[in-house]
């Protein structure tokens, strides 16, 4: 049997090995189980802590090998120490129990939730593991790099991003967090994602449904009333079979049809229209409207005009909601 002094030394060594084993096991889960993307997002909440961990996680394979080698050494040494303390029969039972509880379950549960905090606090121990096992860790890390490749930022498909957004909306609100999204936010974010592949052909108004005026139109009282009832702010102007421009209705505001009929002044026709191919994406069309060239565009299939699309059409597609003005509200209430 060991002397009291030797027993005390073995007990201290046993506790130390259990502690080191728990660090290896816990941080293997807490740090290396964290995706690179999640680690990058963690720096928004823990900028100082993640700064200490970034050099360690720069080579994940090296850290993984160092933790596994160090943990293997600790797990191999613990039964040997217990054998000297309590004998071989009890050593087997105690070593398994201690390693499962204090070397696996508790550290992995804690580090799974507080991996950044615990990893940052014990980062110096991780560096010691790397330096002490560097020869073996470096070789195995290089082999892992050749076999499985380096782990980079994970990119999600659009549908996967939508699922993540839905989960954020479905989760219960946290009192101390603004992470949760309400239903309206979830719907709008999903609409923005889905619109990325939507073309103007899907949101345009077909040309046969578009109200147009000929360049020779006489703006008498009946015609002005007709334009008013249409409720448009812009009207396409045609000359023969060709669209020659767009008329802003506000340019007619000073015209009094009771005093005189008025033919269209060509100077009031805006001719530099935006032309979009039918396959143009919705966001590309939005960029065109942001240039200040106008809020109405002609949609073409080759040389043929097949419809028009407005800024309002684009915004309704992105928001996945109809946009109503005061006139629309009055019409709906009367209906």
TrEMBL record:
GO biological process, one term: intracellular manganese ion homeostasis
Record field: transmembrane: 61-82, 89-110, 116-141
Residues in CNNM transmembrane domain copies: 3-180
Coiled-coil annotated spans: none
Keywords: CBS domain, Membrane, Repeat, Signal, Transmembrane, Transmembrane helix
Annotated localization: Membrane
KW Translocase (keyword) present: no
CBS domain segment(s): 269-326
Main location as per UniProt: membrane
One Pfam entry name: CNNM
InterPro entries hit by this protein: ACDP (IPR045095), CBS_dom (IPR000644), CBS_dom_sf (IPR046342), CNNM (IPR002550), Ion_transp-like_CBS (IPR044751)
GO cellular component, one term: cytoplasm
UniProt signal peptide: 1-26
Membrane topology: Multi-pass membrane protein
Top-rank lineage group of the source organism: Eukaryota
Official protein name in the record: CBS and transmembrane domain-containing protein
Source species: Spironucleus salmonicida
Species lineage: Eukaryota, Metamonada, Diplomonadida, Hexamitidae, Hexamitinae
